[in-house]
Design goal:
By secondary structure, this protein is an alpha+beta fold. Helix content is 29%, strand content 41%. The chain is built from four helices and six strands. Strands 1-2-3-6-5-4 form a six-stranded antiparallel barrel, surrounded by four helices. It starts with a helix and ends with a strand.
């Protein structure tokens, strides 16, 4: 599977588990909703104060296991490097993230207000390696 194939899979399958590295060793796993951006990155919305964001600021190495809505079936592993985009720069990319996954929001002003209130960031993951891929 190529990075382009992985992006196509992520564009159609938004459930994933994100793996980050803890400061004292070991890993932290987080269920996340993933999308793609126009720059060929996997994107994830999170709160600025989340442990995963703290972990990524220290060590940007990530692993994602992306799977279909039914959980059992096709899935892919993506290893990559994360960059964190904070507000206010992240606001319009957060809107794009929502649109690509869920379509139009009924009240974009409210959405933007909630993103600011929750201090949301957008995590951009560049794909370094894809695989393994499996079904079953």
């Amino acid at each position: 599977m190529t990075p382009e194939d992985a992006l196509e899979f992520v564009g159609n399958n938004h459930r994933a588990v994100l793996v980050t590295r803890k400061s004292r060793g070991g890993v932290q796993t987080s269920p996340v909703t993933v999308g793609i951006d126009d720059h060929g990155h996997v994107v994830i919305s999170s709160r600025e104060t989340a442990y995963k964001v703290r972990n990524l600021r220290r060590d940007p190495s990530v692993t994602l296991c992306v799977f279909n809505d039914g959980f059992y079936g096709e899935w892919i592993q993506i290893d990559g490097t994360a960059e964190i985009e904070s507000l206010p720069e992240a606001m319009e990319p957060l809107v794009d993230y929502y649109r690509r996954i869920s379509g139009e929001h009924p009240d974009w002003d409210d959405y933007r207000s909630v993103m600011a209130e929750e201090k949301r960031v957008l995590v951009h993951v560049s794909i370094d390696k894809v695989g393994p891929t499996r079904a079953g």
